[in-house]
Amino acid sequence: MNRPLADAPADSPSVTSAVPPAVLSANGNFDVNAVRRDFPVLSRSVYGKPLVYLDNAATTHKPLAVLEAMDRFYRTSNANVHRGVHRLSMDATNFYDEARRVLHKFFGTAIGCEIIFTRGATESLNLVAQSYGGSVLREGDEVLLTWMEHHSNIVPWQMVCARTGAKLRPIPILDDGSLDMDAYRSMLSERVKVVAVTHVSNALGTVNPIAEISRLAHDVGAVVVVDGAQAAPHMPVNLRELGVDFYVAAGHKMYGPTGIGILYGRADLLERMPPWQGGGDMILSVSFEKTVYAQPPQKFEAGTPPIAEAIGLAAAATYLMNLGMSEIHRHEQHLLRTLTERMAEVPGLRILGTAPQKAGVVSFVMDCAHPHDIGQILDGEGVAVRAGHHCAQPVMQRFGIPATTRVSLGLYNTDAEFDALIGALHKVRRMFA
């Protein structure tokens, strides 16, 4: 049923009561120094050097607003949700329901059943692949992916294709890391039932044209599944405007807690999909003869949900909205331009992924050192980056390399931090060249 979200009772506690207003400087610009004071971990040192955290695509740090919201719940309102008649259970239920309302606002959706809480983006993609894909795909059908997908948006579709007889087809990418849209158009046909694509590549930073991808897929009757884990924390995401059918995001990449993610699904699709897991809270009635399932979202939230994590994620989403997603995006685009220019100072360094539309991910190789050696030396200088294939091995195969070193930016990073990064890269050069 397509029910609007109901308002919480007047005396319901708020998951967002401790979230500060937008942080802007006196001239109205994004005040990164004020933002950094909200993140306690950024004040620590590593090996006697100030921490420079540039591994945000793997996970982000948590602002005080998130830590305090979760702590307040555990201190004052901890109880299980739904069906409880005592006050703590009712408060916990109100917290949990409000968290869903906050996420609907963040993603620009309005129907109360369309946001499902999961354990993360990976579980969300598995849910779509197994429940939707497993129920509609048949032998001869096709699922289109891209060469830049994270393994989480490859393996679940491989599994369901192996079970149903559908065929998995990858859309190629160009030398600059952008999606080959001409190839995509040529691959579309009535055989294509699912187009599963990342919004932002975690290995290249490429921002894909999701609205256009969706429009073209819908023209042939295909459903569009988008991995938004690397987009949701970094740019405005309005799912109605993008026209997607499913969209997933990860709480821990949105400055929220681990162990929670969201799945957005179109209400009519969710209502037709079978449950993915069985258990408590996803049913209307159970007998040994028959079970009647609840409507979405409960149909897909079996068992005790991640209550405190939902509260923390809602606090994180509110924090981001208060800062302004457009402000965050402008700040990170400035950082990306500055970082790209600074990396040109390092001899023998080559950036992988130079698409015209990019988010704050810069993957690179050096002609003198392996990415793991680079990562270890940078760590000794207090600079945290990621080295490896980034769970995107087809990308590495496409460019003929085993791994890259990846710098990934967040809202609390600054131009000044690049001095430590570039200095450490010059140290790599001196040691290995």
Count the E strands: 17
Distance between the termini: 64 Å
CATH-derived architecture of the largest domain: 3-Layer(aba) Sandwich
Q: Nearest-angstrom radius of gyration?
A: 22 Å
CATH topology of the largest domain: Aspartate Aminotransferase, domain 2
Strand order of the largest sheet: 4-10-9-8-7-5-6
Count of discrete structural domains: 2
Regions with pLDDT < 50 over 5+ consecutive residues? 1-10, 17-22
What would you call the structural class?
alpha/beta
List keywords for this structure.
Aspartate Aminotransferase, domain 2, seven-stranded mixed beta sheet, 433 residues, Aspartate Aminotransferase, domain 1, four-stranded antiparallel beta sheet, disordered N terminus, 14 helices, 2 domains
Would you write up a description of this structure?
The protein is of the alpha/beta class. It folds into two domains: 121 residues, Alpha-Beta Complex (Aspartate Aminotransferase, domain 1), CATH 3.90.1150; 246 residues, Type I PLP-dependent aspartate aminotransferase-like (Major domain) (Aspartate Aminotransferase, domain 2, 3-Layer(aba) Sandwich), CATH 3.40.640.10. The chain contains 14 helices and 17 strands. The strands form five sheets. The chain has a seven-stranded mixed beta sheet with strand order 4-10-9-8-7-5-6, sandwiched between helices. The protein has a four-stranded antiparallel beta sheet with strand order 13-14-17-16, with helices on one face. Helix 7 links the parallel strand 7 and strand 8. Helix 2 runs antiparallel to helix 10, helix 3 packs across helix 10 and helix 4 packs parallel to helix 5. It is globular, with a radius of gyration of 22 Å. The N terminus is likely disordered.
